[in-house]
């Protein structure tokens, strides 16, 4: 350990006064957050300016000091944006780097900036400011994605596909209806994020290290300057609370789970075994060995990346679970998982919002598949019920008919009326089944019949799209 180098490094530290020996260089690396918190630089400056403005308004610092701080910060911002800022690992984190540079540029006024403040309330403010604008960006892309689902659903309100349960053909549904299921999921995600944003948007500054400050500060003023809805109500909580980050990650994990389910379906539908859709080449990649391959990498990666967001959530929950009040250095570990969750979600939603409008639908393949697997068997049972048969008996009768069709390797609608009646174990005399049965045996008849709010009928799909568009416009 080169102690002369270290003691030099220590001298420049904001807190080194009471230290008898320099910080070990490994410890310096270990404790520094500079590698990842640099991305908070611009919000850190915004927070500092709002704080300084309030200090001046409250006559805690002079107006001249505030003006010097403003000038210095403008210069620092330029240096950071242009990549010329000289970041120093020895200065530990983004906050101390900026403060040191400010002091170098403007002298004592720079040293007064930290009056009535601590890095504890400063960093909490920075993360909230940063996360707030990221949430807004994600919400914008989420709106684009939701609109894309509505547009595609509108084009396919009448397109019929097999609906599955247990990944076995269950009943025909319209593709528009299927797409609207994702619209619902992503709408809940947007609601959750907007709800989370309200709790993110509370100002910690003023809590100082943990107990508040003895200066006559005006927290409401700072909150207003920075666009916060209010101030955190308890100083101990303000510096130690990371619920807002956990909440974001929980919402992000649910959102990614939805993306992952969608991805799984896209991957299946793209497989030639289904052949329901195609994606433009620009969203796919090839294989380095198999020349014929076109792989759905985007949905596959999104499915994979869902795991890391789940990991980010668990990391933050675990980070917080053992911490006594108030701030602990553990909290420095909040940034990487949060940044990772934000980056993953925002990239994913951007790409999906770009990709979903360009999903090419093979309508014929969907409709052909909807004819398979006795998808309208329930409709036949419902038909018999409407003719007076108890549902369980109708179920049994249709099960027999299906069995007969499996033996004959044909569809229910391939049977003649007489064959169908016989296959159901009924007699012509009973008059329970007549020629009009064939209308309900078609996928089109089946989906059209499910004509109630939340049902798959094309009419309902159109109505749901209309409701959704009105709701989207209101926001
Ligand atoms: N880099 C620190 C963090 O990310 C800033 C707060 C440091 N506070 C302290 N008391 N050491 O949490």
Instruction: Return the string of H and E elements.
Output: HHHHHHHHEEHEHEHHEHHEHHHHHHH
Could you list the spans in which at least 5 consecutive residues all have pLDDT below 50? 1-8
Categorize the overall geometry.
Answer: elongated
Architecture of the largest domain in CATH? Up-down Bundle
Explained architecture:
This protein is mainly alpha-helical and 475 residues long. It has three domains: 24-115, Fumarase/aspartase (N-terminal domain) (Fumarase C, Chain B, domain 1); 120-155 and 172-212 and 233-363, Fumarase/aspartase (Central domain) (Fumarase C, Chain A, domain 2); 369-474, Fumarase/aspartase (C-terminal domain) (Ribonucleotide Reductase Protein R1, domain 1), CATH 1.10.40. 63% of the residues lie in helices and 4% in strands. It contains 21 helices and six strands. The strands form three sheets. It has a two-stranded antiparallel sheet. Helix 12 packs parallel to helix 14. The radius of gyration is 31 Å and the shape is elongated. Residues 1-8 have low confidence and may be disordered. Bound molecules: arginine.
């Amino acid at each position: 350990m080169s102690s002369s180098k270290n003691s030099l490094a220590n001298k420049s530290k904001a807190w080194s006064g009471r230290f008898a020996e320099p910080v070990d260089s490994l410890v310096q690396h270990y404790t520094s957050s500079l590698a990842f918190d640099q991305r908070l630089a611009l919000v850190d400056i915004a927070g500092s300016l709002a704080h300084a403005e309030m200090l001046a308004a409250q006559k805690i610092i002079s107006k001249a000091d505030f003006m010097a701080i403003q000038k210095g910060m403008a210069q620092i911002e330029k240096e950071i944006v242009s990549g010329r800022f000289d970041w120093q690992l020895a200065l530990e984190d983004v906050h101390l780097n900026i403060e040191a540079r400010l002091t170098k540029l403007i002298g004592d006024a720079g040293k007064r900036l930290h009056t009535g403040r601590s890095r504890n309330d400063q960093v909490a403010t920075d993360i909230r400011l940063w996360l707030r604008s990221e949430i807004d960006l994600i919400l914008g892309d989420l709106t684009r994605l939701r609109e894309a689902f509505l547009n595609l659903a509108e084009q396919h309100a009448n397109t019929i596909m097999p609906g599955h349960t247990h990944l076995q053909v269950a009943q025909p549904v319209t593709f528009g209806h299927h797409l609207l299921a994702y619209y619902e999921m992503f709408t809940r995600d947007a609601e959750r994020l907007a709800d989370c944003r309200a709790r993110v948007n509370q100002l910690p500054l003023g809590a100082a290290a943990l107990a508040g400050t003895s200066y006559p500060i005006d927290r409401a003023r700072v909150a207003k300057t920075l666009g916060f809805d209010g101030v955190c109500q308890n100083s101990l909580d303000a510096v130690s609370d990371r619920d807002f980050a956990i909440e974001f990650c929980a919402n992000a994990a649910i959102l990614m789970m939805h993306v992952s389910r969608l991805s799984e379906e896209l991957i299946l539908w793209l497989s030639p075994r289904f052949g329901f859709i195609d994606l433009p080449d620009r969203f796919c990649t090839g294989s380095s060995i198999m020349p014929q391959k076109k792989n759905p990498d985007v949905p596959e990666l999104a499915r994979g990346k869902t795991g890391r967001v789940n990991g980010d959530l668990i990391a933050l929950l675990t980070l917080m679970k053992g911490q006594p009040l108030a701030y602990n250095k553990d909290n420095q570990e909040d940034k990487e998982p949060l940044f990772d969750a934000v980056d993953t979600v925002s990239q994913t939603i951007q790409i999906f919002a770009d990709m979903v409008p360009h999903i090419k639908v093979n309508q014929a393949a969907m409709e052909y598949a909807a004819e398979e697997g006795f998808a309208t068997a329930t409709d036949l049972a419902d038909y018999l019920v409407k003719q007076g048969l108890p549902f369980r008996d109708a179920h049994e009768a249709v099960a027999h008919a299906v069995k007969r069709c499996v033996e004959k390797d044909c569809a229910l609608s391939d049977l003649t009326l007489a064959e169908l009646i016989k296959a159901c174990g009924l007699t012509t005399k009973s008059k329970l089944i007549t020629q009009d049965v064939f209308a309900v045996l078609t996928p089109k008849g089946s989906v059209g019949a499910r004509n109630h709010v939340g049902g798959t009928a094309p009419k309902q799909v159109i109505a749901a799209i209309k409701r959704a568009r009105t709701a989207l416009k209101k926001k």
